[in-house]
Amino acid sequence: MSSLGFSLCFVLGFTTVFVLLGASATALGQVLLGYRFEMNLIGGGIVILFGLFMLGTLRPAWMMREARFHLDLPGGRVTSAYVLGLAFAFGWTPCIGPILGAILTVSAASATVSDGIALLIVYSVGLGVPFLMAALLTESLSVRLKSIGRFGRYLRAAAALIMIAMGTAMMTGYMSAFAFWLLETFPLLGRIG
């Protein structure tokens, strides 16, 4: 199998875990639907905390821990790539945790189960595209990664600031107002999903 095929199996592995997390968080959110105001306050606070964590302003020890689970799977197999993707979803939390946590929080606070699954599929596709592109461009990419790496710090800070703004909007009720404004301004968005 080609490196693209193995990468696709890897992406399917972590997508499986993220979609299950999204469905679970959204199902729990539906149970708590009667507490939407409180959920928006708590959820917004969590998203702000994740944004502060990404900025480096907040570094609690419990979020800096790492857990590892070692399996001895022979390489070069589809199953190994899929299991590695599953492990990636659980083990790479310090890097993707704040953004994933924010998506799960938004999913639980305001979406249906199908919307929660859709949010996590979109997240997984976005996370998976670089892996698939890297598999396609393995040789030429290794030379260019060194020059691209310096922009990662700025992208991370921008994502953190967006998360803080989103959390604030959730807590103040502006998230709903912004969603309605988007739907009125871009009616095409209402037909998506």
TrEMBL record:
Residues 4-172 form the Cytochrome C biogenesis protein transmembrane domain. The chain crosses the membrane at residues 39-58, 79-104, 116-137, 158-183. Its main location: membrane. It is found in: Membrane. It is a multi-pass membrane protein. Keywords: Cytochrome c-type biogenesis, Membrane, Transmembrane, Transmembrane helix. Belongs to the DsbD family. This is Cytochrome c-type biogenesis protein. It comes from Thalassospira tepidiphila.
